[in-house]
Design a protein that fits this description.
By secondary structure, this protein is mostly helical. 95% of the residues lie in helices and 0% in strands.
Amino acid sequence: MSIQQKEKSFKAAGAAAGEATKDAGSAIGEATKDVFAKTGDAMKDAASTMAHKAADAGSFVAHKAEDATSAVGNEMKSLAGTIREKGPHDGMLGNASSAVANTLDVYGRELQEHGLSGIADDITNTVRRHPVPAVLIGIGLGFLLARVFAR
């Protein structure tokens, strides 16, 4: 074989190797794109599943909180009945026990019927009607909490 033929054969082999490398690189690039696309889809699915489970858990906790609030309301009403039955009926202590029983009964019924959302609405309306005292109470509570936790 002559030198020119060897050069042609090296050029042809180099071209074939370059083409094979180019094809292999392209195949690797496509495979990498597929892997990233599948990984991205899997991540999206996992995030969606986690979001749904978190929403379900939040709903479950809210439902349990409402159930507990209703139970507390029922117990308050029961305590009001007990105070009415066993508390004093005459004089100043009778008036005080009657007032306590009535208050427990009213707020127990409120808790049973409206739950935590009813309490939140009542607090919101009270703050809107009396903003200055609400701010002062908030400042006072903040001061007391700061003193308690500073120790």
